[in-house]
Fold this protein.
Amino acid sequence: MDEYTTGQVARATGLSEKAVRMYVDRGLLDARRTSADGPRLLDGGQVERARLVRLLRGVGLSLAEVGDVLAAPDPVPAFDAVWSDRRSALAASLTAAEYVRSALVGAPWLDVVVHRRHVPERLVLGTERRATLAELPSVLPEATGAVFAVLRAADVPLAGHPYVEIHERATEGYAARLTLRVPVPAPVRPPSGFALTTDDAHEEAYVALTAAEARDQERLVLVHDYLASGRALAGGVPAGDDREVYLPTWEAGGPGPVMEVAVPVAPAPGP
């Protein structure tokens, strides 16, 4: 059986000798020594395996993912499982990059359908919170539950979909201010920490999102930015904070749209 040194394997596969040694140390390649201080030797099968390691690393797999793929009884479905996630992430990154480019030339554009509707004047009960990006998934259900508890205690039904007004952009390090509001059919005495206000009649532009789209934070940010830019508003301008409207299908995750990103719209000022 032919055997090869790490240097020979490196030259045969296009890897550096340092990389070959590292892959041996990490258990991705098997090698033996004829003596304690002798060279590491790899057989022909390991040369082919080293080539596969180089190819897998070349498309962005981590060392752990490479090991999982090569250790699988059938490496093809194992690779497909990893790569499907990478393909989705790549597509999202390409969409984000194209949007950023369009914004840089002063004409933001995103491939979404922007709907319009009239929202009549209505009473809304709301409560304000602050949350970082990581806290939003727990803060929003808590705020929603708190508002619903007030309605149950007052025996007042909902008169529309709950929504969140996003006054600031949350980040990992900044707790942004937001208000959870629910439309109500009649006045409710708000307890401490709640406010009953009027949502004035207005036109609204919105984009409907599926559960998968709503979970995609990168896409969600793009949709918010696109609406806030005013480019999608067909002669209108944003007239208030962005909103996220939660549909009855939200908790079940579908079918169809589960959430809408919306913004109030006013007519654009004349020349």
Summary: Residues 58 and 95 are 22 Å apart (CA to CA). Residues 75-104 form the longest helix (30 residues). DSSP finds eight helices and twelve strands in the chain. The two ends are 84 Å apart (CA to CA).
